[in-house]
Amino acid sequence: xxxxxxxxxxxxxxxxxxxxxxxxxxxxxxxxxxxxxxxxxxxxxxxxxxxxxxxxxxxxxxxxxxxxxxxxxxxxxxxxx
Amino acid sequence: xxxxxxxxxxxxxxxxxxxxxxxxxxxxxxxxxxxxxxxxxxxxxxxxxxxxxxxxxxxxxxxxxxxxxxxxxxxxxxxxxxxxxxxxxxxxxxxxxxxxxxxxxxxxxxxxxxxxxxxxxxxxxxxxxxxxxxxxxxxxxxxxxxxxxxxxxxxxxxxxxxxxxxxxxxxxxxxxxxxxxxxxxxxxxxxxxxxxxxxxxxxxxxxxxxxxxxxxxxxxxxxxx
Lengths: 81, 225
Prior knowledge:
The complex is a heterodimer of chains A (81) and B (225).
Chain A: H1 3-18, H2 39-53, H3 59-64, H4 68-80
Helix pairs in contact in A: 1-2
Chain B: H1 3-31, H2 36-40, H3 50-58, E1 74-76, E2 81-83, E3 96-98, E4 102-105, E5 110-111, E6 116-118, E7 120-122, E8 130-132, E9 134-137, E10 142-143, E11 148-149, E12 153-155, E13 159-161, E14 166-167, E15 176-179, E16 184-188, E17 206-207, E18 210-211, H4 212-222
Parallel strand pairs in B: 1-3, 2-4, 3-6, 4-9, 5-10, 6-11, 9-12, 10-13, 11-14, 13-15
Antiparallel strand pairs in B: 7-8, 15-16, 17-18
């Protein structure tokens, strides 16, 4: 999968889970840029992403994430297996 | 020789000396049997340092408690308390753990500073008499700073209590965040996310100062549980 298609799908998931249609994700977006994205809604996002791509993350993966680019990277690594 | 060279050399020597003293402490505690407790708990949350041991067992702040306790914390009635592996209520400063009733604390529980665990109340019309209750806290819980847990409260595994909250009711469901005054359910984690929570264990299992294998004997002899 291309990075851009993953980004589009992530954007759809974020709009659904965080219930805010004005979210536009970029590769450099962090949790500080989106008000609704806190440590509690983070878990719901992770569960939604896992369902969508049919992969499983570990807690170490999540701790390493800084922005959307890191999420896309781990998705591509896990999805290709 | 310039001054900068001298200062660099002296800094290097002091660094080597601190390194040397640390490695001597580690080798000593590893090989002498009655100092093994310092070595075995050095990576855990319920760490026994020389300072806490000295204040507790030599100077006598909360001497009878069987787990490491900070000297500003207060433990009353340690006989009514069960403390699991890797957890130490009162190791953070300013805690008040009151053992009028029974307190059961599970394994690997993190308890912050200024936390109060009140296991008993007074009778309303006669304040000289106590009304004991029980507190049960599950495994892998996290209790934030300044929160108070009242008697007859039961918390499930992986419960996170927010800082400065008053827990009045039981929350037996696992995997949730509670908080507020009085505490309410803020978030329950979905079952699909349970695999993210790490059930870590330590290499050396200690109930405070006592090994896991010797704890049953200690419990029969000393505790009223």
